[in-house]
Design a protein that fits this description.
The complex is a heterodimer of chains A (about 325) and B (about 260).
Chain A (H helix, E strand, L loop, with lengths): L2 H26 L5 H26 L7 H18 L2 H27 L4 H21 L19 H18 L2 H11 L1 H6 L4 H27 L9 H14 L4 H17 L7 H15 L12 H6 L14
Chain B lengths: L3 E12 L2 E7 L2 E3 L3 E5 L6 H9 L6 E7 L4 E3 L5 H6 L2 E3 L12 H9 L7 H5 L3 H20 L15 H13 L5 E5 L7 H18 L2 E5 L3 H7 L2 E6 L2 E6 L1 H6 L1 H8 L5
Parallel strand pairs in B: 4-9, 4-10, 7-8, 8-9
Antiparallel strand pairs in B: 1-2, 1-3, 1-5, 5-6, 10-11
Helix pairs in contact in B: 3-5, 3-6
Classes of the chains: A mainly alpha (about 325), B alpha/beta (about 260).
C-alpha cells in the first residue's frame, strides 16, 4: 500500500468520521430532535438495503424486484430470535440468523431464476417476495398480518451509521476487485465473459446472494429500531422504494445511492407537513429528475475525492473515476 | 508429426429441420494455423460455436487434448473449455464496453489468477500487490500489440480496428492453447487488414498456439493459413494447402457457381 492509497483512504475515513461527529454534535446541542434522529437512522437503513440492491441491479445487471422479501427475512428472524434470547446477544444472534437464512434462500431462489433475463427475472423475484410476505402473513409464529410488537430497541442511529459505512466500504471494494470485475463483465457481455472462462451463473449468484445479505441486515436493523414489524412493511412498495433510490442515484453508482438515499429521506421529512399531498409532490419530483437526468443523478460515475482534494484527475488512478 | 490438440468426429448439429453442420471431421495440430472458409451460411460460425461449447452437438464428438490424451468435451460449457485452453473472438465484436482497455484484458486474466476475496474486501496490502501484478501483466500484453497508449480508453470509444485487436489481446490474456478467430478482418479497410495479417502471424510465432480462422478475405486467408478447410451446406467440401484449395474444382464451383456453357 503506497502513500497515495493511505492518503486517499484516510480522507474518505475522515469524511465518514466528520458525518458521524456532525450528527453527534447536532444532537447534543439540540439541533436535531428525536424526529430528525429517526430520519437519519432510516436513511442509514435504506442506504444499506439500496447498496445491496445496486450490487444486484447496477453491477450485475439483474433486475430484481424482490429486495423487500430479503429484508422481511432479516427483520422476522431478528424479532423471532429476540423473543427467545433476550438482550443484545439476542439481537446479534437474530441479525446473524437473518443474514444466514436470507443468504441460503437467495441461493435457492437465485440458481434457477438468474437464468432468466430482464422482465422475466423481475417478475420471478417479485413473485418470490410475495411468497415470503404471504408465508409470514399466514404463519402462527410470525403473528400473521398483525406482525410482532415490542421488539427490544438496541439500534440507535450510531448502530446504523457504522454498519452503513462498513457496507459502503465492502460494496465499493468488492466492485473494484477481481470478482467485481467478473460480475461487470457478465453484465456487459455474458457470451464474451463465458468465452473467457468466467462462470457466469456463479458470479450472478454471488451478486444476488450478497445483495440479499445486506437486505437482511437492513431489515434486521429496522426491526429493532422501529420496534415493530408487520408483513405490510415488506410489500411490493418497499422493493420499489429501494429501487427508486438506486435509479435516481444512477444505476451502478454507489455514491449516487448514498446521496440519493439521504436526499429522498430529507425530502420525505420536509414533505410531512403537506399531508396527503406529500406523495404527489414526491412523485412529481421523481418524474422531474427522471426527465432531466434519465441516467440518474450520478449516471454510473462515482464521487471522487481524488479529483477534489488531490487534483489528480483520471490519470492512472482509474479505480476512482468510473467514466460513464 | 506434432501433437493433435483438436479433433472432431462426425460432428453434426440440427436446428429443427436444418442440419447446419453435417458430419464434419477436422483436426488441428499444435502451433498450426488453419483457415476455415466457405460461402455465407455454410455453417462456419456454427462449427466454431460447437468447438467452443456455445452449442452441444446433435451427433458426433469434439475432442480436445488435455495434456495426456484427446478427451471428449461435448458436455463442457464454454467457460470450462476456456479453462482447458480454448479462446475465441467474435464475428460481431463483443467487448466489455463500459470498461477500459486495461480492464478488458484484466478481466480475461480472472480465470488464471486466484481471487483473494478477503484481502480485496478489506484492501489488505496483498490486494494492491496482486492488482499491481495483474496490471503489469496486462500492460505487457498490450504493449506487444501497440495498445499501451490507449489502456485507459473505454473499450467502446476505440476505433473499429483497435476494437478487433483488443478482442484478440483479450483472448490471448487467457493463455490459450488454441485460438478461434471469427472473421477478424470483417469491416476492416485494406491497411487494417494488412496490419491484421501481420498480427496473426506474430501471435502464432510469439505465443506458439494453434489458430483457426474464419475469413472471407481470401488474400488474408491464403497468406496466413498453412492448411484450409472448406465448408459448404454444413459439409466439409475440401481440405488442403492454400494452393491445393485454389485449384480444387469443387471449391471453385462452390464459390463461382456451376459452369453451364
Amino acid at each position: 500500500m503506497d502513500q497515495a492509497h493511505i492518503k486517499y483512504t484516510l480522507s474518505w475515513a475522515s469524511l465518514a468520521a466528520m458525518g458521524f461527529i456532525l450528527i453527534f454534535v447536532a444532537q447534543m446541542v439540540g439541533l436535531i430532535g428525536h424526529y430528525g434522529i429517526t430520519t437519519i437512522a432510516l436513511i442509514g437503513i435504506n442506504i444499506i438495503a439500496a447498496l445491496g440492491l445496486n450490487l444486484v441491479v447496477g453491477i450485475s445487471g439483474q433486475f430484481s424486484l424482490g429486495h423487500a422479501g430479503f429484508m422481511a427475512i432479516g427483520a422476522y428472524a431478528t424479532a423471532l430470535v429476540m423473543e427467545v434470547v433476550p438482550g443484545i446477544i439476542g439481537f446479534i444472534l437474530g441479525m446473524a440468523a437473518g443474514i444466514v437464512v436470507s443468504g441460503v434462500i437467495a441461493l435457492i431462489v437465485g440458481i434457477p431464476t438468474l437464468r432468466l433475463r430482464g422482465d422475466y427475472l423481475a417478475i420471478a423475484t417479485l413473485g418470490f417476495a410475495e411468497i415470503i410476505r404471504i408465508v409470514i402473513m399466514n404463519l402462527k409464529i410470525t403473528n400473521g398480518p398483525a406482525g410482532i410488537f415490542g421488539i427490544a430497541p438496541f439500534v440507535s442511529w450510531q448502530l446504523v451509521y457504522i454498519p452503513a459505512v462498513i457496507t459502503l466500504i465492502i460494496v465499493v471494494n468488492f466492485v473494484r476487485s477481481m470478482p467485481g470485475r467478473a460480475i461487470i463483465a457478465v453484465r456487459d457481455n455474458e457470451i464474451a465473459a463465458e468465452s473467457l472462462g468466467i462462470n457466469t451463473t456463479k458470479y450472478k449468484v454471488i451478486a444476488f446472494v450478497t445483495g440479499a445479505l445486506f437486505a437482511a441486515m437492513a431489515g434486521s436493523l429496522r426491526a429493532s429500531f422501529i420496534q415493530s414489524i408487520a408483513p405490510k412493511d415488506y410489500a411490493f412498495m418497499q422493493s420499489i422504494m429501494i429501487l427508486i433510490i438506486i435509479v435516481i442515484g444512477g444505476i451502478g453508482s454507489m455514491s449516487g445511492t448514498v446521496v440519493t438515499a439521504i436526499a429522498l429521506g430529507v425530502l420525505d421529512t420536509m414533505l410531512q407537513n403537506f399531508g396527503s399531498l406529500r406523495m404527489v409532490i414526491y412523485a412529481v419530483i421523481l418524474i422531474a429528475v427522471m426527465l432531466v437526468r434519465p441516467q440518474g443523478i450520478f449516471g454510473s460515475r462515482e464521487l471522487s475525492l481524488k479529483k477534489w482534494l488531490f487534483d489528480e484527475g483520471d490519470g492512472h488512478g482509474s479505480d476512482n473515476t468510473e467514466n460513464a | 508429426m506434432a501433437q493433435t490438440i483438436l479433433k472432431t468426429r462426425d460432428l453434426s448439429i440440427r436446428f429443427g429441420g436444418v442440419t447446419a453442420v453435417d458430419g464434419v471431421n477436422i483436426e488441428a495440430a499444435e502451433n498450426e494455423l488453419i483457415g476455415l472458409i466457405g460461402p455465407n451460411g455454410a455453417g462456419k460460425t456454427t462449427l466454431f460455436n460447437l468447438l467452443t461449447g456455445v452449442y452441444s452437438p446433435s451427433e458426433g464428438e469434439v475432442l480436445l487434448f488435455d495434456g495426456q490424451q484427446l478427451a471428449n468435451v461435448n458436455r463442457q460449457s464454454p467457460a470450462k473449455r476456456a479453462r482447458l485452453g480454448v479462446a475465441r473472438t467474435f464475428q460481431n465484436i463483443r467487448l466489455f464496453e463500459s470498461r477500459t482497455v486495461l480492464e478488458n484484458v484484466m478481466i480475461a486474466m480472472n480465470s488464471s489468477t486466484q481471487a483473494h476475496v478477503f484481502s480485496s474486501l478489506f484492501r489488505l496490502p496483498s490486494f494492491y500487490k496482486n492488482e499491481e501484478q495483474l496490471k503489469n501483466e496486462a500492460r505487457k500484453l498490450l504493449s506487444i500489440f501497440d495498445m499501451l497508449e490507449v489502456q485507459d480508453t473505454l473499450a467502446t470509444n476505440l476505433p473499429y480496428g483497435q476494437q478487433r485487436r483488443l478482442e484478440i489481446v483479450r483472448a490471448l490474456a487467457t493463455k490459450p492453447k488454441i485460438l478461434f478467430l471469427d472473421e477478424p478482418a470483417a469491416g476492416m479497410n485494406p491497411q487494417e487488414t494488412a496490419d491484421l495479417t501481420r498480427l496473426i502471424k506474430q501471435v502464432q510465432q510469439e505465443f506458439k498456439m494453434t489458430i483457426i480462422l474464419i475469413e472471407h478475405d481470401m488474400n488474408l486467408v491464403m497468406a496466413v493459413s498453412e492448411r484450409l478447410y472448406v465448408l459448404e451446406y454444413g459439409k466439409l467440401l475440401a481440405s488442403g494447402t492454400p494452393l491445393e484449395i485454389q485449384q480444387n474444382a469443387d471449391v471453385i464451383r462452390a464459390y463461382l457457381g456451376e459452369n453451364n456453357e
